């Protein structure tokens, strides 16, 4: 509501000082920029901290918004870090606009006006030769413009492969010093080759796609065009390798091997859909199966990836393809059917809990399931969880539906009963429909058919409540994830959307 819908460009200026002084500066700046110079069409003065934070969030959201664009035209970072003297910034922006308009190229730009540093992302389809030629031409003209304004191709980041061909023009005689320094300390050119000193004159030699890029049928679930687009959205930025800035990927952070990163999986799947790897070559490779198995569906990559590549979905489908070709191990089958195992164990809880305290039995369980004998399993309930109610639905209390999940059903009935007691004190009443396991084990282990059957059963049981606006709570985070996110992906139905909209984690309810 602060910014008109048809706004094409925004300049954010923040002042520091006393309140009266700040407001006077803001009013003065608006008058000069809009009324005197005519560089703007309007101005908004953010008076409170909330409005200021909203505007800065908009700036920070610029990259994710641009990178989420769909289709083959993608924001390409080949002129994305130029810097010019701040007083020459208007000249640069005018020149940039003219160059892009001449080549009919749309773009997004953001940056730091006070430093003259602008990140430009032209939208191009680099699987088309015409757009590759546009990229070469635009880069040459933009860097020529920057050089003429006394600027540099790199303001915040390194020169790298994409800017190295232009450095000789910017550096002049200094380039020869770069060359001989490199030759002395790296005569074989094996340290970061072509990152600063290179013989290349083109920036299109190392393209991820290129004019020869095309997809081929694989006979797998990855032939779906929406999945191909997900695979191709990864542009290799390496955010998933970050050791500090992000929480993804926990497996990569623990093991430190590139092959466990989300982008490594995207690279392999892209090689599959473009025909560089045959399905049996990739899906049958033990190393591929191992790295896919290492993903435990925490979904952190999906929440933090700048382009929102749905790697959790792609990994689940890869596991399903592995299961389709090679079957499922006994231990995986056991975990997929833990509901049956838990029901059986809880019916004879005394015997089950006694046996699980015996070292020899834990060794057998380890052999069967892969679950370490060093792990102490939670004891089983004496029978499946059932609510002990003190009140009646007829008393007019607010109804809340509870999804207990396998843990409460078979291992910790006290958690479910405690939730019921707590809600009763808030004049609410818990009800538990006839539900199945949430299906997360099946989803994680590649049994999509089994997960789909459980999801359909649970949606049928929960829909009558959700459609009346009755909230659904879960004490197990995995169950809540299944109900809120996974079922929508798995089933793709309006009913799944309705149910998901009413689901809450019990601790947040």
UniProtKB/TrEMBL annotation:
InterPro entries noted in UniProt: 4Fe4S_Fe-S-bd, 4Fe4S_Fe_S_CS, Cys_rich_dom, FAD-bd_oxidored_4_C, FAD-linked_Oxase-like_C, Helical_ferredxn
GO MF: 4 iron, 4 sulfur cluster binding; flavin adenine dinucleotide binding; metal ion binding; oxidoreductase activity
Domain 4Fe-4S ferredoxin-type, chain residue ranges per copy: 231-309
Domain FAD-binding oxidoreductase/transferase type 4 C-terminal positions: 3-195
PROSITE patterns: 4FE4S_FER_1
Pfam families from the UniProt entry: CCG, FAD-oxidase_C, Fer4_8
Keywords assigned: 4Fe-4S, FAD, Flavoprotein, Iron, Iron-sulfur, Metal-binding, Repeat
Chain ranges of the Cysteine-rich domain: 400-484
Protein name (database record): FAD-binding oxidoreductase
């Amino acid at each position: 509501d602060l910014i008109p819908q048809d706004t094409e460009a925004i300049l954010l200026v923040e002042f520091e000082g006393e309140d009266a002084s700040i407001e006077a500066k803001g009013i003065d700046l608006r008058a000069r920029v809009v009324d005197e110079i005519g560089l703007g069409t309007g101005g908004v003065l953010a008076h409170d901290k909330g409005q200021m934070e909203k505007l800065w969030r908009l700036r920070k959201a610029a990259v994710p918004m641009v990178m989420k664009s769909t289709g083959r035209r993608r924001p390409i970072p080949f002129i994305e870090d130029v810097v010019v003297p701040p007083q020459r910034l208007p000249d640069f922006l005018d020149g940039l606009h003219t160059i892009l308009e001449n080549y009919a190229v749309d773009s997004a730009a953001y940056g730091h006006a006070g430093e003259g540093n602008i990140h430009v992302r032209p939208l191009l389809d680099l699987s088309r030769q015409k757009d590759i030629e546009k990229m070469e031409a635009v880069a040459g003209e933009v860097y020529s413009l920057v050089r003429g304004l006394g600027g540099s191709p790199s303001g915040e980041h390194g020169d790298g492969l994409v800017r190295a061909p232009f450095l000789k023009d910017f550096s002049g005689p200094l380039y020869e010093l770069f060359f001989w320094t490199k030759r002395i300390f790296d005569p074989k050119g094996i340290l970061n080759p072509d990152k600063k000193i290179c013989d290349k004159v083109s920036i299109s030699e190392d393209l991820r796609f290129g004019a020869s890029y095309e997809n081929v049928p694989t006979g797998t679930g990855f032939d779906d065009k929406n999945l191909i687009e997900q695979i191709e959205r990864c542009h290799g930025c390496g955010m998933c390798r970050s050791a500090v800035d992000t929480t993804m990927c926990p497996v990569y952070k623990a093991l430190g091997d590139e092959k466990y990163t989300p982008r490594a999986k995207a690279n392999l799947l892209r090689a599959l859909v473009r025909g560089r790897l045959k399905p049996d070559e990739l899906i049958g490779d033990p190393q591929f199966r191992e790295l896919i198995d290492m993903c435990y569906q925490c979904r952190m990559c999906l929440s933090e990836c700048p382009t929102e590549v749905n790697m959790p979905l792609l990994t689940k489908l890869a596991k399903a393809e592995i299961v389709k070709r090679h079957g499922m191990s006994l231990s995986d089958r056991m975990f997929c059917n833990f509901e049956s195992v838990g029901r059986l164990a809880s019916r004879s809880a005394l015997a089950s809990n006694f046996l699980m305290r015996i070292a020899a039995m834990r060794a057998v369980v380890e052999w069967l399931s892969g679950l370490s004998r060093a792990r102490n399993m939670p004891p089983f309930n004496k029978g499946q969880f059932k609510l002990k109610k003190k009140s009646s639905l007829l008393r007019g209390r607010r109804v809340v539906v509870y999804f207990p999940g396998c843990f409460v059903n078979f291992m910790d009935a006290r958690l479910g009963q405690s939730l019921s007691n707590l809600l009763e004190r808030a004049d609410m009443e818990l009800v538990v429909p006839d539900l199945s396991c949430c299906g997360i084990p099946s989803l994680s282990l590649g049994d999509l058919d089994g997960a789909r059957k459980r999801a359909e059963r649970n949606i049928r049981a929960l829909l009558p409540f959700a459609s009346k606006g009755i909230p659904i709570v879960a004490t197990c985070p995995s169950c809540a994830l299944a109900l809120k996110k996974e079922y929508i992906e798995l089933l793709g139905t309006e009913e799944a959307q309705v149910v998901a909209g009413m689901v809450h984690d019990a601790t947040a309810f």
